[in-house]
Amino acid sequence: MSTIGPGSEALVSIDSNLLGIASTPYRTVIAPSQDLERLSPADGLCLADCRSHAPVFAGMVVAAASRHYVPSRALSVRALLQLPRLARTDGVVSRRRVIAELNHCAARLRHDQQSLSELIPRDEYGLSDLRFVGLESAVADRIFGRLHYLRSARAGSMNFALVDPLNRLPVTLCSVSPLEWKRVGRQLRTQFGIPLEGAWDVSRVYSFDVAPANAISYLLGRVRQWIRRELPTAQVLTTAVDPNLGFTGSSYRSANWQKWMSIAARPYLYVDGLYATPRQLRARFGDANLSHLRATHSEHRFEQSRARLLNSAIFCSRLRGETEQVAPADCRVLRR
Length: 336
Fold this sequence. Notes:
The protein is α+β, with helices and mostly antiparallel strands and about 325 residues long. It has helices at about 45-50, 55-70, 70-85, 95-115, 135-145, 180-190, 215-230, 250-255, 280-285, 290-295, and strands spanning about 10-15, 45, 90-95, 130-135, 160-165, 170-180, 200-205, 235-240, 260-265, 270, 275, 300-305, 310-320, 330-335. The longest helix has 21 residues, at about 95-115. It contains 10 helices and 14 strands.
């Protein structure tokens, strides 16, 4: 255990060798009594109903999560990432295809859980019992690489977590990286006077089902305190919130972050039926242009969503002083 900064609380770095515990079944959910698979499979669900967790979609998620013994919250996000691939231009997906995709996503999520079962916390603790720590990259990368909906970690990040007091397993974790999004950086400089080198991005967040209420907002508050103390040139934290995945930014608002701008939506991209970011495409194939990829990698299937998607919100938190609200008229929509 080492203390970071005068008068600061201990910030512990977790060694991956200390994280082995006996594997036990993952926490499950209860399926509703109604047999959802008998519901008019030809009828469609619109993406708006899915991302708002309308009762029919919510019931489908719970049924699939129960069948595969996976957490319904994580399953819902993964499915929402995949459903735009299946939606028509009007945003409608047949119930049959929604059910099939939920089961595919649940099976993959179950496999991902099993691959790092020794890192999954199973005991519930109150927020005051959890410890704020610096998390070893090897541990954070495994969790983000398997359980985060993007299934990847951001290289070169600092990682932080709230860990349980007994097994010291991460319950809620995040990664923080220098801001690389130059369009956001330019807007921060132009509108708020913040240089690019003063902006740091919360690039990944993941919370296990056993996390107590408000764990994410509490972790964000502790991260803000640490960065303000240890990185004197840092001025602001940023993050992107994608409402197409059902995210509303409530944890950021609870931590006193504010929406400062938006990013115009672009189609989701897929390789062989699985979502991929442009960054992942460039890392894997050297290009993110689907026309080029289809011409040069015919052994793979490249697709993009056709339905209209919602803009992502950029939430920000000043590291010193209060984070000001931005009036809707002054909240710029940035093009990608």
